Amino acid sequence: MTGPGAAGRGLEAGVRLAVDAMGGDHGPVEVVNGALSFARANLADRLILVGDEATIRALAGDLPANVSVVHASQVVAMDEHPALALREKKDASILVATDLVKRGEADAIVTAGHTGAAMAAAVLRLGRLPGVDRPALAVQMITSAGSLVLLDIGANPDSTAEHLAQYARMGAVFSERVLGVARPRVALLSIGEEKGKGEVRVQRATELLDATDLNFIGNVEGKDLTRAMADVVVCDAVLGNVVIKFFEGLSTFIFELFRTEFRTTWRGRLAYLLLRPGIGRIRQTFDYERVGGSPLLGVRGTVIITHGRAKRRMIHHAIEVGARGARAGLPDVIAAAMRAPTIRPATEVGS
Amino acid sequence: MTGPGAAGRGLEAGVRLAVDAMGGDHGPVEVVNGALSFARANLADRLILVGDEATIRALAGDLPANVSVVHASQVVAMDEHPALALREKKDASILVATDLVKRGEADAIVTAGHTGAAMAAAVLRLGRLPGVDRPALAVQMITSAGSLVLLDIGANPDSTAEHLAQYARMGAVFSERVLGVARPRVALLSIGEEKGKGEVRVQRATELLDATDLNFIGNVEGKDLTRAMADVVVCDAVLGNVVIKFFEGLSTFIFELFRTEFRTTWRGRLAYLLLRPGIGRIRQTFDYERVGGSPLLGVRGTVIITHGRAKRRMIHHAIEVGARGARAGLPDVIAAAMRAPTIRPATEVGS
After folding, report:
1. How many domains does chain B divide into?
2. pLDDT in tens, B98-119
3. For a Cys staple, B326 with which of B18, B73, B107, B135, CB 3.0–4.6 Å?
4. Alpha carbon distances (Å) from B274 to A58, A269, A278, B283
5. What is the mean pLDDT of residues A146-162?
6. Are residues B181 and B306 in the same domain?
């Protein structure tokens, strides 16, 4: 199961994780506490907290033996323009964390900070893997039967058939090597269930994917997304981004309707008390904190971006995804997969 | 408010509605009963039930004075290939109903049958309106503050910027003239809130829409869809289709989780009894039957396609949308809007 990059390291060997301690809507307190929680539960791994040293030490108190701090004097704010911010803030925590991986001093980066800045830092400092024209941001999406990997949910629209085929390959590697799904079913998100139905790029991507050894099952539709019809669902960034944000919006909308009913009348409050165990089960199904680490696939490093709103528990789980990715040697296994001769090189980007 | 086509007809004047009595998953029984319900409540309007006369008369019993039957010996099944079926079944109910509008014997078509067949019949028999390169299927989507119009949710992917701009214009006309929204806010569905952010076609459509007199507000994101940030949301068919099917899938998924909890334990059953009024309110918010008539915009006729799963109540409401569309002279007001000089003609289809 371990890729070439993990050669010599056993599955249980420790990895070194650079955590951007300053990122996220809640600032360092949630990130630091999430990181400490992970560190205490995973003594073989080493955590490097990157950010303002005084702040981190004040929050963390006595550091566990497997946690260290690397100082970074700046931070990219959530509302900054990513490229501009990275140009101006050379000592931003996300850049310092990324450079630790670049120099081989860490095996993965985990951040709850500005998604665009994290992606830009990874592409600029680490670079793309050979055979990857565009890195893709993947998310583990909740379904009625566990989770599936949806990608791309990033910021690069107008992907080509070749991009989609590359996303498919990378998503399959992540699903198999990091999430442990055997022969993950790979599908294209489109209109209509018939194979190849949809946009021209989906028709062409279908041809490309049919020629690979992936377990490619054709199209899935919007209604299939919650039914776990596939393990890896591939689409352009616009579609992926709209789906994942609509998921958040719609589920919040529905849960809020119930919450209002549970709170505004005595009947509702009593119903809530009775239903508490059931609501707990529903919460567990919709526990996105558990699956909240989104890998940026296709760069020369394991990069996990979690939600800006992540609190300590979700940070802990995001670091876990980073650790699993690092242990699997994610960049190396993706690079190996991209060398598979059945994937055609993308000769015309933007076609 | 009435368009040129409604000239001479007052707002309260009756319209003639051709109802495809054979379409839908539940067959004629639901359609006929829904139509009779509408006919009894709207005595000024005339209903023409199209389909197997014996079946319809057996189901309907004595027909109200404002209901008549036009015989059609065939029906397009829900799993048939639309173009093939229409070629082979010249006497299909959807074709016969469409021809009634074509010959001026009806003012609108309402069907719960095969969506693709209804669209194909409308385009083939009625044709597109001048200035419309592609008809668009619109849906009234439920939000936390009423409904919004989402289009295109049809079957034609790879729309251009010009198509999107035309959808915007047609959706705005439907929102204003049929739903009664004053100066509807029109938005493009994309990634990122900044105006013009997203695909190249969205950037170009932004330029086109900025040059119109529409109340164009720029982009909305997936998370904005349930928050009624716009009255008309425009996107390519793939995005619209995935969103609306995902809406169905995700809301069903969540409601099923609650239903299971309400049914499987005594605590749940008791909670359900207590919460019944609240669940009624939630049901009312999610009452898609009330808004279930989807207009096909841009053809020379008022065409309303409702869900294949529609039962009589939803059929009744879909016919209401058809009546409102016919009363507003929908095709004529759309044609007039498309002549607005600020809409650039789409010179390069497929660009």
Report:
1. 2
2. 999 999 999 999 999 999 999 9
3. B107
4. 49, 9, 15, 15
5. 94
6. no
What is the distance in angstroms between the Cα of A224 and the nearest Cα belonging to chain B? 7
- Chain B residue numbers touching A192 (CB-CB < 8 A): 155
Flag whether pLDDT at B131 surpasses 60: yes
How close does chain A come to B235, measured CA to CA in Å? 10
- Calculate how close chain A gets to B241, using CA atoms only, in Å: 6
This prediction's pTM: 0.91
The residue in chain B having the minimum alpha-carbon distance to the alpha carbon of residue A219 is: B242
* Domain around B81: 1-132+298-351
Same domain, B202 and B107: no
Whether residue A267 and residue B274 make contact (CB cut-off 8 A), yes or no, is: yes
Confidence of residue B341 (pLDDT cuts 50, 70, 90): low
Q: Report d(CA A21, CA A94) in Å as an integer.
A: 9
Specify the CATH number for the domain of residue A113.
Answer: 3.40.718.10
pLDDT in tens, A95-151: 999 999 999 999 999 999 999 999 999 999 999 999 999 999 999 999 988 889 999
Helix (H, G, I), strand (E, B) or coil at A176: helix
Report CB contact under 8 Å: A198, B238. Answer: yes
Q: What is the DSSP string of A229-297?
A: --SEEE--HHHHHHHHHHHHHHHHHHHHHHHHHHHHSHHHHHHHHHHHHHHHHHHHHT-GGGG-EEEEE
Contact B275 A257 (CB under 8 A): no
Q: Does residue B60 sit in the same domain as residue B172? A: no
B90 domain residue, yes or no: yes
Q: What is the ipTM for the molecules in this complex? A: 0.90
